[in-house]
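Page 42, continued from yesterday. The earlier attempt failed because a stray header line got pasted into the input along with the sequence. Redoing it now with the clean sequence only.
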Amino acid sequence: MASSVLNDLLEMGFEEPRAELAVKRSGHLEGALEWLEKNQDKPLDEISAPATDSLSDEDNPNAEPPALKAGEVAQSLVCKECGKKFRSNAQATFHASKTQHVDFDESTEEIAPLTEEEKKARLEELRQKLAEKRAGTSEQDKIDRKKNDDIRRKSTKETQDIKEDLQKKEQLKEAAAKRKEKQDEIAAKARIKAKIAADKEVRRSKAEKDKAEREGRAPPPVPAVTSMPTTSGPIASKPASAYTEARLRLQTAGGNLQKSFPVETTLFEVAAALTEDNGVEVQSFTQNYPKKVFDQLDFGATLKELGLVPSASLIIR
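This time it went through. Structure tokens are written below.
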């Protein structure tokens, strides 16, 4: 009997673990269908946890009551809150525990078993509920997958933007470090050359003095110390290295701009300032005389390194 009921449930499309539990709880098709209907939304772990191999009629809410004896009045219980009828106290107790309904009344009405037509109608109803549940689950899965994809794409884009921003900052730091290293190297070489020249001059003067003393002549006059020109004397022109600022005349599609930058400013920083202050997107700078095009490969060089000091006229492309 149990094997036949289980096969019927499996043919209807129920999962085998749930079907087996339903058969154990009831032992017949009608009770199994009622049990499956009541527990269709519960996870398998929850409904199988209290399961045992055999249940007494006291513990089994779907157990069939014993057959009525001759002359015995049929009795049942009716929930006055929802109108549902039950064959046994155990079924009514189970209903109360699940719905919190506590108002029951006795009835002399005998609850007849389901007819074949009622069984078929109940089965069809269960099939429709299962189909609706699966369709709803599938649609919800699609919505959840789309949300997860949107979150993943947004997170990927934000991460990429952060990486690009960090890379740009790192490039600027590296360019500044290289410029400082180069300047320090040039200054060190200049100091060494000056010291060598000074030592050489001291040795030459000492040799000439010693020679004059041996020959009995007056020593030659000590040469004046060469110093950097100051503002107290006439200065024809300053070398490019003496300037600290570069004046740029920038020709854009919207007109000409005059801007000044420190000589250590890179072309990249000039382009960024034009974009931020004037909304001008810069791809390259063109110098008419001498003719030269500074593209993005030159953007890491300073105005001083590119010979744009003390002033220059550039066309923005």
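Notes: The mean pLDDT is 79.
Reminder to self: strip header lines before submitting.
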